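Quarterly update from the structural biology core.
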Amino acid sequence: MALFNYIGVNFAGEKIKGKIEANSLENVIQKLRSEHLNILDIFEVKKGSNNVQINSKELELFTRQLSSLISSRIPIVKSLDILTKQTEKKSFKEIIFSIQKSIKAGNSLADSFANYPKVFSNLFINMVNVGEFSGNLDSMLERLADHIESYNSLVKKVKSAMMYPIGIMCVAGMVLLVIFTFVIPGFQKIFVDLGGKLPLPTQLLINLSEFLRSYFLYIFGAIGLMIFGIKKYFATPNGGIVGEKIKRKIPVMGDLYSKMVLARFTKTLAILVKSGVSILNALEIAGKTSGSFLLENVIKDAKEDVAGGKKLADTLASSGFFPLMAVNMIGVGEEGGDLGGMLEKIAELYNKDVDILTSGLLSLLEPAIIVFMGVVIGGIVISLFLPIMKMHELVH
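Predicted structure, tokenized:
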């Protein structure tokens, strides 16, 4: 069974759009004609294409290029045709081509993007929708591209800062693996030949080496299953909340995570508010795209309060999730009629805090990891050489 999008006109002259599953295009045509529809267009949605994921760098480039083409007064269909030819990734090329066909069939650009929720977020679709209705699609796309670039830059800074300590840990892990797999068994043979009772630290080390070598595959498999299970659990709403609470309690890391979430939320909300999206819709979209289950729940309650006439700053203050500084700045923005501008300033402040915390975390992690690995490897070396230092006791 294949999935087809169709557009037709009924007897009343109303345009009808929809989706239908069928074995072939002929079956779709027969079914639609049996419903007395005058068919305008039909196209197949390729299996799995709406589940394709595109990395944020490709999405940023696509958005910026589309904005440039539209601002140059090139029609959307022609702009998409140009981008289809320029795009190298086959899966993304197919998506752009499908969007182009959807627009030719009479759908809006926002509706066409909505067919691919794994690629285009609610934020993206809503801003495109606002841009189409306001006639400022090119500027909306440019804002979206800037937002994606800003978020990519933030994530890249954190990842770059973590590369060095992660690299050290990986190298240290490989060193330990070599020691337990090859070095300790070699010493064990020497100790057996010498005979005698081994010191407790040395015996424990040998027992651990034998255990790891005997059950390596089982241990590796168990760790893999455990990681998979934890990731699956943390992907659920309840598990996500538990995971976030744990993250927020970790020294330095918790503060870094919290400020990254707040920076993303305030930046997204600022863009939506400044683009003319209603505050209730903007809150819902920003909450869902924040990447935080805790914040999403806070925003659901805030949305109800704002709908009831309460000020956004007041409801966020009562949540306990937002720092006092952010709440006060939002309050000033509401009073001054420049909520979007104030939210942007908050996002900038948190982005700077993330930079400072990232540098501070790196300066703490580097010596901590080196000391930890020095103690571990040093302890192993001492345990291995204890019997050699007591050689006369082993011989007797």
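The CA atoms of residues 317 and 323 lie 8 Å apart.
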